[in-house]
Amino acid sequence: MRYLRKRLDEVRPVPSRRDNPGKVFFAATVTLAEMDGSEVRYRIVGADETDAEKGWISVDSPVARALLGKAVGEEVSVRTPTGERVLEVVEVEY
Q1: CB 6, CB 20: distance < 8 Å
Q2: First and final CA of the chain: distance in angstroms?
Q3: Beta-carbon count within 10 A of 64 CB
Q4: Stronger pLDDT, 3 or 44, i.e. the higher one
Q5: Where are the alpha helices (H) located in 1-94, listed in sequence order?
Q6: Please, what is the Cα angle at 25 between 1 and 47, to 5 degrees?
Q7: What element of type H or E holds 51?
Q8: Do 92 and 72 touch, CB atoms closer than 8 A?
Q9: Which pTM value belongs to this model?
């Protein structure tokens, strides 16, 4: 309970982004194409909700930060612990 009460001071509502569904914002599920042609799918969630097995990444992660505001067809370059990744936004869902 103490932990949750402390988090309440930091919680803020996330506005709906239905006005621009083709762009990546918080709570989006994003399909990305890797340079080798494979695809990966992530859902952008809060730091407390991350789950690697489900593909849920924190909004504070390098990949999510690079994707925020991007649209279908745009590419992003992300430095990760395994090296530089170039990803193309293929699909955005809410």
Answers
A1: no
A2: 30
A3: 21
A4: 44
A5: 2-8, 62-67
A6: 30
A7: none
A8: yes
A9: 0.79
User: What distances in angstroms separate CA 82 from CA 17, 71, 79, one per listed residue?
Assistant: 32, 25, 8
What single-letter amino acid sits at 88?
E
Write down all domains in the chain, each with its CATH number in brackets: 20-93 (3.10.50.30)
At residue 8, what is the residue type?
L
pLDDT at 30 over 90: yes
Report the alpha-carbon distance of residue 58 to residue 10 in Å, rounded. Answer: 16
Count H helices and E strands in the chain, helices first: 2, 5
CB atoms within 10 A of CB 87: 22
Mean pLDDT of the residues in the chain: 88
